[in-house]
Amino acid sequence: MFDAVKETEKIIAFIRDYYQKCGLKGAVLGISGGKDSGVVAGLMCKAIGPENVVGLTLPCHSKSRDAEGAKLVADHFGFELLNIDLTTVFDSFGEEIKKLGDFTEEERKNSDINIKPRLRMASVYYMAALLSATKGGTYIVPGTSNACELYVGYFTKGGDSVYDIAPIYGLTVEEVIKVGEVIGVPPEVLYRTPDDGISNQSDEDKLGVKYKDIAAVIRNEEVDPAEKEKIEILHKKAAHKFNIPVYKVEE
Q1: How far apart are CA 63 and CA 55, in angstroms?
Q2: Could you tell me which of 124, 218, 239, 108 has the C-alpha nearest to residue 173?
């Protein structure tokens, strides 16, 4: 049985111990208005203090509710929230791509979806370096992916797969929500239907499977065989995201 209070305490201790061990000061993370970033932001504030946490809203043709949710989280936990609008950067990049060929919207769809988290992560690391240079200590970037997303490869290489510490790496979606309840993430954020804010689809619609079934597969619990097969296919197709083959010269 998952003990949310106990696990929350352990995660906070895990973060705090790492910061003390490495002599770190702060954290910078993107705040999407969803539960994962909201829970991670709250955990970071509990571990190192809200004065050492900076959240970024990084709109890129985004919905207004994303920024509204981000503000709820920042106001509740008391950390600074900054905005870097990436819309014109994304559009300018798109204009450069048009110079390379007459690609259709469908041909560009996947590339356009994945460039957004990559632009966002570049921005988060830029701010982490900038704050490290101006605040008298090292700022790092926490990851916001949960165990269910990671198992089926629902992340972008070079985007949200890049981080320095992963507080919810081992938590399923349901467990993330339970931890969020313990630390008091605003309900409007915590119970919001998860989506990527990019494709106009919910996560589950886009994946074609339910998070509860992914969690069951991860925990070796009973799940409908047809659903299990879908999940394992996603897991196998994403294998290239987990391990990078490296050639080594034999001695």
Answers
A1: 18
A2: 218
The full length of the chain comes to 251
* Overall domain count for the chain: 1
Q: pTM for this one?
A: 0.94
Band of pLDDT at residue 202, cut at 50, 70 and 90: confident
pLDDT tens sequence across 37-87? 999 999 999 999 999 999 999 999 988 889 999 999 999 999 999 999 999
Domain that holds residue 10: 4-241
Residue 251 within a domain: no
Spatial distance between the Cα atoms of 216 and 123, rounded to a whole number of angstroms: 35
Predicted pLDDT of residue 200: 64
Give a yes or no: residue 250 inside a domain: no
From the CA atom positions of the chain, what is the Rg in Å?
Answer: 19
pLDDT per residue over 4-42, tens digit each?
999 999 999 999 999 999 999 999 999 999 999 999 999
